[in-house]
Amino acid sequence: MPSTVLVGAQWGDEGKGKITDLIARDFDYVVRFQGGNNAGHTVIAGGQKLALHLIPSGIMYPEVTPVIGNGCVIDPAVLIKEIEMLEREGFSTQRLLISGNAHLIMPYHLDLDGAQEHHLGSNEIGTTKRGIGPAYQDKAARSGIRVQDMLDPHIFELKVTTALREKNALLSRVYGLPTYSTAQICERFEPYTERIRAHVTDVSHLLNQKLRNGKYILFEGAQGTLLDLDHGTYPFVTSSSCTAGGAATGSGVGPGSLHKVLGIAKAYITRVGSGPFPTELAADSEEGATLRRVGGEFGVTTGRPRRCGWYDAVVARYSVAVNGLTDLCITKLDVLSALENIKICVAYEYQGQRFETAPGQQSVFHHAVPIYEEMPGWHCDISMCRTFAELPGQAQDYINRLEELAEVPVNMIAVGPSREQAIVRNWQVR
Ligand code: GDP
Ligand code: IMO
Ligand code: MG
């Protein structure tokens, strides 16, 4: 099984960073294939805590090569800061490889992200304001600037000049914002180019060659299934393909090379930003407040409080389908120890109709009323459990029920934020 895709099965922040770090030691390459520094992945091991935005979570292992694929968008200033942070923390970033085909987040993308959100008013998406949407807009419009363009000063200047003709008009005339000059941007990017030049490579060619040589590749998704541009709760989504298929287009390997697909889901659900969330608990409800407090549910990237709610098996089944999940990992089971009883949404009700699978019509999803099953809690600390048998009976029942509802085996369970706080049931890579 040489390659595995790891994806978020909910609305992001499921613990993808933690699980990537947990399983990365079995792989030769860990590849980010979409998104940018809107992601915030937390890794805690050996008493060290890292918050990663662009660099894959396999970075802690010296024998793993971290790769940023063509499907990502890169803000070079942020990337360089992250490289410097990792070096300070004692992790070598020399092995880092970056696709020349990845697109750049330009300074005007940050301005436009803020301006577009402002103009949406109460319909705002609640983006991370990192320029993600505008960078992908330009990619699709064929006016984006790629990492490889930085390596050719003449091409870079030409592309910036062309882009600014339109961007400056948009910034000044539509949004009333300051404009940029070509010289200003070229000057700013010059040191970025020198810093990242040695890392730029043909990622697709490299990965295909390594796959042929029997190397093991882990594709680390960012965001989550319900934030996917095509399959998420559009328009309250991010602008990239966070589902498993994105691993192929976002790195340049064929879909036949993707063997296992591991979905990461929290034992409950959180969401940051706007958009529908059927099982959401009011922030001031006792259970909602408990989940946020005990789970530490505040964004890694923006610090925003995350909206919290019960586990949603309809969302889980949808994730199983659109990603072709072969394995599930349930994280943050320990957080539920604080609750008296635990609810699971097993279906939705809308105008007298029962939905066992996600309704295709978005407005139904917005008004779906969850149908819950209630299970007793276990009221004890499970953060030291390392085998399924060590979990209290109620926690085992909860996991068994989630497995039954998703029809996919729960082969990993996380019971705390550190690498070792995990129960690995049936997971073998090599
Ligand atoms: P990601 O974006 O999917 O990588 O997830 P984030 O790092 O944004 O958010 C997950 C948060 O939960 C981080 O603070 C992790 O350290 C923490 N975490 C991950 N797994 C567990 C777990 O099993 N239990 C607890 N209590 N915290 C966890
Ligand atoms: P990780 O990888 C949770 C959300 C934003 C907003 C929407 C669009 O840490 O799970 P964007 O800035 O991408 O245009 O914002 O997507 N969002 C995330 N939510 N976790 C993330 O990443 C997210 N990345 C983007 O809050 O609702
Ligand atoms: Mg996160």
Question: What is the compact description of this entry?
Answer:
The chain is an alpha/beta fold and 430 residues long. Helix content is 33%, strand content 20%. It has a ten-stranded mixed beta sheet, sandwiched between helices. Strands 14, 16, 17 and 18 form a four-stranded mixed beta sheet that branches. A two-stranded antiparallel ribbon has the order 3-4.
How does this structure look, described?
With 430 residues, the chain is of the alpha/beta class. It has 3 domains: 3-99 and 199-260, Adenylosuccinate Synthetase, Chain A, domain 1 (3-Layer(aba) Sandwich); 103-196, Orthogonal Bundle (Adenylosuccinate Synthetase, subunit A, domain 2), CATH 1.10.300.10; 265-424, Adenylosuccinate Synthetase, subunit A, domain 3 (Adenylosuccinate Synthetase, Chain A, domain 3, Alpha-Beta Complex), CATH 3.90.170.10. Helices cover 33% and strands 20% of the residues. It has 13 helices and 20 strands. It has helices at 16-23, 76-88, 107-120, 132-141, 147-150, 153-174, 182-196, 203-212, 245-249, 286-295, 313-323, 362-367, 393-406; strands spanning 3-8, 29-32, 41-45, 48-52, 65-68, 73-74, 97-99, 103-104, 200-201, 217-220, 260-266, 269-271, 307-309, 311-312, 327-331, 341-350, 353-355, 369-376, 410-414, 422-424. The strands form 5 sheets. It has a 10-stranded mixed β-sheet, sandwiched between helices. Strands 14, 16, 17 and 18 form a 4-stranded mixed β-sheet that branches. A two-stranded antiparallel sheet has the order 3-4. A hairpin with a 7-residue loop joins strand 19 and strand 20. Helix 6 (153-174) packs across helix 7 (182-196). The radius of gyration is 22 Å and the shape is globular. The N and C termini lie close together (7 Å). Residues 8, 12-18, 40-42, 44, 296, 300, 331-332, 334-335, 414-417 line the site of guanosine-5'-diphosphate.
